[in-house]
Amino acid sequence: MLPVRNGEAFLEEALASLAAQTHADYELVVQDDGSTDRTAEIVAARARSDDRVVPESGPARGVAAAANRAAARARGTWLVRMDADDVARPERIAKLLALAADHPAAGFLASRVRYFPREHVGPGMARYEAWINALLTHDEIHRDRFVEYPLPHPSTAIRRDVWDALGGYRDGPFPEDYDLFLRAAGAGVTFAKHPDVLLDWREGEHRTTRNDGRYGLDRFLWLKVQYLAPLLATMEREVGIVGAGADGKRLARTLVDAGTSPRWFVDVHPGRIGNEIHGAHVVGYDDLDRLADAFLLVAVGREGGRDAVRRTLAAAGRVEERDFLCVQ
Predict the structure, then answer these.
(1) Domains and their CATH numbers in the chain
(2) Alpha helices per DSSP H over 243-296
């Protein structure tokens, strides 16, 4: 399913990449979300030459509504997601179906991706690409679910029964794809990711994620906390935040707004230890024993920091997901 609005700049390339798939038995529902450029013309021309292409159109209501409309029209067992500016590699569909056969319990699939053109890929995006491509198994994906969205969404496929059970995308002031993923994780859906790069993910200033406030970092954090706060409430444990820098402070403020007040911060900076931040005591790693019953949220954003904290907490006998979660 391919929702699109004003996608004429790259749409023909995206459609051509789908036409070239080695697995030919598929239906492509292209949902035009109120385009005012040549999008409808491009889709109609493709449909005339390829009867697998199903053009749909409607008023501009946003990507979540457009994708939901496309899904309602689609008839397949698997709903394969695609964006109008990306390029599918020829074996994308075939390899996703093979992945599904190898992981029959999985209801949410994805693959590794490669950003392009490379001259537009800065150091931050390169680190994100490396991180997202490193998470392949269900356990790895689930473990890092609150760090960021660990499935490159344009590369995903979701089984129809899972989609129906979750109710598709929700529309609101938050990233609809990450919200769907977090609901799937909360519902116990099994994830799998193909180890091959099956999608070229276009980077550039045109991307909705760069131009729509719903995809800002503050919205991602707000959404995380909507799922974190109820989870923490069920644990009935004090909450501590590892990292008293800017990331940890933003997390604390957002948690407080959601009704969860952290009791502790853990930090290495000597100028912070012994102080209070947002009513929470700041202690050093040497004082971890004082937090034996606390559940810790790791909010350390510097490169390599998350893995360093994981090693430190594991050495102290803490088990990830039982005693702590990484959220940054």
Answers:
(1) 2-215 (3.90.550.10), 217-326 (3.40.50.720)
(2) 246-257
Neighbours of 218 (CB within 10 A): 10
Contact 132, 150 (CB under 8 A): yes
Q: Helices (DSSP H) in 74-189: which residue ranges?
A: 92-102, 123-134, 138-143, 160-166, 176-186
Q: Judge whether 306 and 328 are in contact, CB under 8 Å.
A: yes
Verdict on whether the full-model pTM lies above 0.85: yes
Say if residue 160's pLDDT is above 90.
yes
Whether pLDDT at 208 is above 90? no
H/E element, 138: helix 138-143
Q: What is the pLDDT of residues 224-240, one digit of tens each?
A: 999 999 999 999 999 99
SS3 of residue 79 by DSSP: strand
* Per-residue tokens: 126: 């390169």
How would you classify the pairing of strands 78-80 and 157-159?
antiparallel
Taking the C-alpha atoms of residue 192 and residue 135, their distance in angstroms, rounded to an integer, is 9
pLDDT of residue 101: 98
Q: Is the pLDDT of residue 211 over 80?
A: no
- Half-sphere exposure for 76 (CA within 13 Å, toward CB): 19
Contact predicate 162/184, CB 8 Å = yes
pLDDT tens figures, 237-285: 999 999 999 999 999 999 999 999 999 999 999 999 999 998 999 999 9
Q: 39-51 in b/e burial notation, b at 16+ Cβ within 10 A?
A: bbebbeebbeeee
Residue 81, strand partner residues: none
CA dihedral 160, 166, 172, 176 (to 10 degrees): -50
Amino acid at 69: R
- Burial tier of 73 (Cβ tally within 10 Å: 0-12, 13-18, 19+): middle
For residue range 280-299, list pLDDT tens digits in order.
Answer: 999 999 999 989 999 999 99
Q: Which helix (H) or strand (E) holds 49?
A: helix 39-49
Query: Nearest CA to 256 among 229, 230, 238?
Result: 229
